[in-house]
Every structure is written in C-alpha cells, then in structure tokens.
Amino acid sequence: MDGRQPAIRKNYKMKxxxxxxxxxxxxxxxxxxxTTQKRAPLENAPEVYSAEKRYQPFRETAFLxxxxxxxxxxxxxxxxxxxxxxxxxxxxxxxxxxxxxxVRPLDYIYGVDEYRTGKEQNLTHIIRKYKPGQPAVLxxxxxxxxxxLKVTFGARTESKSRERDKCEDPFLGISAAGKRGEAPDxxxxxxxxxxxxxxxxxxxxxxxxxxxGYRMLDWQDISTAINAMKVGEKIxxxxxxxxxxxxxxxxIKSYCETKPEKALNMDIQVAPQPxxxxxxxxxxxxxxxxxxxxxxxxxxxxRSLGADEAIxxxxxxxxTLKAVNNxxxxxxxxxxxxxxxxxxxxxxxxGETSIRIYNEAGRLIYLYDLGxxxxxxxDEVNLSQNxxxxxxxxxxxxxxxxxxxxxxxxx
Length: 411
Prior knowledge:
By secondary structure, the protein is an alpha+beta fold. The chain has 11 helices and 19 strands.
C-alpha cells in the first residue's frame, strides 16, 4: 500500500490541475463575453481622429472647366429641356477642356457619352468617372437644339481664369424696370445714357426676350449672355415693344466707353473678411458634439429656388425668401476647402447688399451685411458643421434678390 501512495498523490495533483485550468478558461470566456457586450454600443459612437484616413490620397479626376447653374424645374421646362437635371453654363474657364471643345455660356449640358444627368447624378458625378486626357462626347442644348461636342478632359492645374477690368467689360447699359401689362417671359428694362442699348435704338420699357439668339428669362440669363461677349462684337437684342417684337443690332461698348468719368475712379471692391465676428457667430455650431475625422469629401449642388418651393419654405419653416431671382449674379461657386467651404460670386451692380444662409431646420446660420457693395465677394462658410442636407441662400441688393438651394451630399 505504501508503494502506491506516490502514484495516487500524483493522480490527485493532475486532477486538481486540470480542474484549475478548466476554471481559468471559464473565467476568461466570461470576461471576453462581458467585454464584447460592453463594447457593442461603441459601434454607434462618433468616429475618432484617424491620421491614416485624414491623409488618404484622392485620385485626380477629369476637369471640364465651366461655371454652371442648376436650373429650377420650372425654368428648364420653359427653355424646352426634356432633361431637368443638366448644368446651365454661365462661364467657360480659359485654356480649359470646355473652351477647347467649343462649349459656350448658355449651353445646357445634360450628358457625357452614354451617361445622362438625373436625380441621382449631376454633371459633376458623371465627370468624376473620367481621368485627365480621356476623350468623351458632351451632349447639350444650344439655342433650343441638341448638339454633341467632342472633348478631351483636362486637369484643373492646366486652366486659368483672368479677371477683366472695366475697359474690357462689355456693357449693354440697361437697368431693371417693372413688368408692363401681360409681358412674356423676359426682363423689362430702362436705358442708360450713352450706352450700347441707346445706340442700337432701345427705349425705356422695352422687354428683352432674346440676346444673340438665346432666350432670356431673367437677369442671370442677360448677365451671362453679355459677359460671354468681347467689346466691339455685334450684339443682337430682341425686344417686345407695344405688342410687337423687334430686333436691334450693333457693336457692344465697354463700361469705360459708356461711363468714362466713373470708370477712371472705379476700384473693384472685395468684401472684407469677417474675422472675429465670423468666429463668434459661426463656430458655435449646433448643440451636439462634433468629432473631426478629417476633410470628408462632400458633393455641392446649387440651383435656383423656384417660387413654389419658396412658398412652401415660408409655410413650413418660416423662412421668407424672395425667389424672383432678378439680381445680376455672376460666377456663383461653393467649393469644399478642407473642413469648410468657400463661397464666391461677383455682383456687377451696386447697392445695399446682404447675404443670408438658412439650414434645413429654418435656423439662420450665416448673416453678412456688406453695405453699399459692388464687385467680387469671397468668404468661408462652414456648412459642414450643420451636416449634409439642404441649405437656402439669399443674396439681396437693393430691391433685387437671388435665392438658391444648396444641397450637400456625401461622395
């Protein structure tokens, strides 16, 4: 019996050791399950800063080189476009793919190759499918007729844009007048002394319905048509006068030729930076925690606000916007710049000017009173603090205004 005791003790030790290992495994398994249960809610927590994500390189995409406007459905239909989601060209960038292809202001681009613009993709989305140097075919309307233009996409770095001075600016010489009677679509104007309009025989109360063969529905169209010209080129203006349509034609003068005494002393004003006021007003944000994870790429879509939508906004959101869009507004762009956005436009007219932006909830998130202003405006607007969605921009100058709907969506 004494000889068997060491073996029995050894068996007991092995048994106890096995029980100990099993117990430790059960404890570790229970701890792991508990940890998993505690971490589960973190899936919905804000994402923390990631250096790898922040500095992820982006592939260079094709660049066409246009400034454009997204038309309201009402305006697109009036112009006879069967695709309501195209881009209405307001300016062509110098030395760009668009310029080389022969794209012109007031062209309406609705497709590239087999792709067509629609609710789910605008022209920017389509162009992003291409690379610099890649050929394609642009599908567009010009003067009411469909055309196709061959284009070879370029890179943004190849293009340039030079600002013209007042002696290079074509100037028709008209000002706004109230609509008279049952006037058709277009703009009723008064005539400025010593101007191109006066020289070609226009009169106060003439209602402009076309310029150079393009239909004119509002001041944006007139501004685009005139700025597409060069001083000395022949301009053809079609007007309605006393119930009859007339055509007038002649070389277009510059601003200097029309108003020489003012042009000599004119400096183009650039809006001052808001500085500390901007920081205090704009950076307070919504009442929620925002964790910055780097510059997320956001798609910006800007289109004119229609009258029906303006009425709906006033009824549902208590936002009062003038959707007449009779303000001459040039080159409106809103582009992502790092974590924010930069808004830029030019106002050729002069007057008491203010800018307002409302978010989708109807809260005023940006207000800038410029005083008696004319010229180029550029400023940072931190829309990304207010998340993606719809925003509403109104620019007022005197009794004229331009109202736009801005839609931000993740790329």
